[in-house]
């Protein structure tokens, strides 16, 4: 790993274990942990190949897998990946630094139709690597593929900087919302969900009118 992430430098040594335990408690209590996955599912064709970049304990990838998508979850934290493998068999789980992402060997050369960066992922990568992370994610998408990125606007990564970084990485911003269930974004929204498009022509629409 080239530079330590904020996940490492800004949290304590037991943070990963506590994070795993927190989400296991939420799941046991019946909390809704699939909101991000539902939005991804809504914007891609059935059976899509989806990259969960910064997957954490795997809650988003697990829902997408249950809905029939081919999902690869990647996180730099081996503790979180170990929990994902234990709790959510089905998706492929890999330990990797998003700033150096290259899944051509471990996950195969086929491109992804979509990527999702949920749970404040970009607020936790190493400072100054945000554009690189976005570019590495984009390099794994098919032409016209989408990326859904969500993070708190008060987490130390300014939305203006994100807009500069996404353009530098090669993405175009198509839509922005205040929540994963599509509440309108306004200037003082505490959270932003952005739908980004990787350049290139979309695939031909399938029978349902969606690219496939």
What is the compact description of this entry?
By secondary structure, this protein is α/β, with parallel strands linked by helices.
Q: At CATH's second level, what is the architecture?
A: 3-Layer(aba) Sandwich
Q: Please report the distance between the alpha carbons of the first and last residues.
A: 35 Å
Largest sheet: 7 strands, mixed
Assign the structural class, choosing from mainly alpha, mainly beta, alpha/beta, alpha+beta, or little secondary structure: alpha/beta
What oligomeric state best describes the polypeptide chains here? single chain
Work out the helix count. 8
Name of the CATH homologous superfamily:
Vaccinia Virus protein VP39
CATH C-level: Alpha Beta
Order of helices and strands: HHHEHEHEEHHEHEE
The CATH topology turns out to be Rossmann fold
Number of domains: 1
How is this structure best described in words?
With 212 residues, the chain is of the alpha/beta class. It has a single domain, classed as Vaccinia Virus protein VP39 (Rossmann fold), CATH 3.40.50.150. The protein is built from eight helices and seven strands. The chain has helices at residues 6-9, 15-28, 35-43, 59-66, 78-87, 121-124, 130-138, 159-169, and strands at residues 49-53, 70-75, 92-95, 112-117, 141-152, 172-177, 191-197. It has a seven-stranded mixed β-sheet with strand order 3-2-1-4-5-7-6, with helices on both faces. Helix 3 (35-43) crosses helix 4 and helix 7 (130-138) packs across helix 8 (159-169). The chain is globular. The N and C termini lie far apart (35 Å). Mean pLDDT is 88; it is low at 205-212.
